[in-house]
């Protein structure tokens, strides 16, 4: 399927989910993440969910990261440059929704991309080879291209993969894993 078709399909599928379904599946995804081979790492980049888009509630995963004394990094998006600035999440971090409903840090201690070891990546859809479809603005492809080559990229999804995304671009960055409520998909390349 084409990215545009997948965006429409999965936005519609997510709209059908109830609050309780989102909470339950988000908790199951967080628990499945315990099976990832990433827990020897220190710096984890986590997205904060856009509730209006029924994104996965990453609060459960955040609790696991905090319980394991991991450094959690969150981003602030600049829609003019299509770049993200990354900040350490602390007890003092003020979070505010931007004009697009994305919860972001107001300010804080900036973290260089070179420190980030694991990135939990938001997505709408993904395929069996680890390609993903986001909202189409390119923020994560730009960010992931700036990361170290060995950064571990983990998608989080309510749904199983599509067979193939047919219009992959050269600058699309593949995932290493995608975690669903039922398990973990690993992509070898």
Automatic annotation (TrEMBL):
Which residues does the record give as ATP binding sites?
3-7, 132-140
Q: Does Magnesium show up as a keyword for this record?
A: yes
Q: Give the keywords, sorted.
A: ATP-binding, Ligase, Magnesium, Metal-binding, Nucleotide-binding
Q: Which cofactor does it need?
A: Mg(2+)
Which SUPFAM superfamilies did the record assign? NagB/RpiA/CoA transferase-like (SSF100950)
* Entry EC no(s): 6.3.3.2
Positions bound to substrate: 50, 55
In its UniProt record, which GO terms are filed under biological process? folic acid-containing compound biosynthetic process; tetrahydrofolate interconversion
According to UniProt, the reaction catalysed is: (6S)-5-formyl-5,6,7,8-tetrahydrofolate + ATP = (6R)-5,10-methenyltetrahydrofolate + ADP + phosphate
Give GO terms: molecular function aspect only: 5-formyltetrahydrofolate cyclo-ligase activity; ATP binding; metal ion binding
Spell out the PANTHER family in the cross-references. ATPASE INHIBITOR/5-FORMYLTETRAHYDROFOLATE CYCLO-LIGASE (PTHR23407), CHROMOSOME UNDETERMINED SCAFFOLD_24, WHOLE GENOME SHOTGUN SEQUENCE (PTHR23407:SF11)
Protein family per UniProt = Belongs to the 5-formyltetrahydrofolate cyclo-ligase family.
What is the protein's given name?
A: 5-formyltetrahydrofolate cyclo-ligase
State the organism of origin: Flavobacterium suncheonense GH29-5 = DSM 17707
């Amino acid at each position: 399927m084409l990215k545009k078709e997948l965006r429409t399909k999965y936005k519609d599928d997510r709209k059908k989910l109830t609050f309780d379904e989102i909470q339950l599946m988000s908790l199951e995804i967080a628990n499945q993440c315990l099976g990832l081979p990433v827990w020897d790492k220190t710096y984890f980049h986590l997205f904060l969910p856009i509730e209006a888009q029924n994104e996965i509630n990453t609060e459960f995963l955040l609790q696991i990261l905090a319980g394991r004394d991991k450094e959690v990094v969150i981003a602030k998006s600049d829609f003019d440059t299509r770049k993200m600035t990354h900040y350490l999440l602390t007890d003092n971090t003020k979070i505010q929704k931007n004009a697009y409903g994305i919860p972001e840090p107001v300010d804080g201690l900036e973290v260089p991309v070179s420190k980030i070891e694991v990135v939990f990546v938001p997505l709408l859809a993904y395929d069996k080879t680890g390609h993903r479809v986001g909202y189409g603005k390119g923020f994560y492809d730009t960010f992931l291209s700036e990361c170290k080559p060995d950064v571990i990229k983990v998608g989080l999804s309510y749904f199983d993969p599509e067979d193939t995304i047919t219009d992959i671009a050269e600058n699309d960055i593949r995932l290493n894993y995608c975690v669903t409520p039922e398990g973990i998909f690993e992509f070898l390349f």
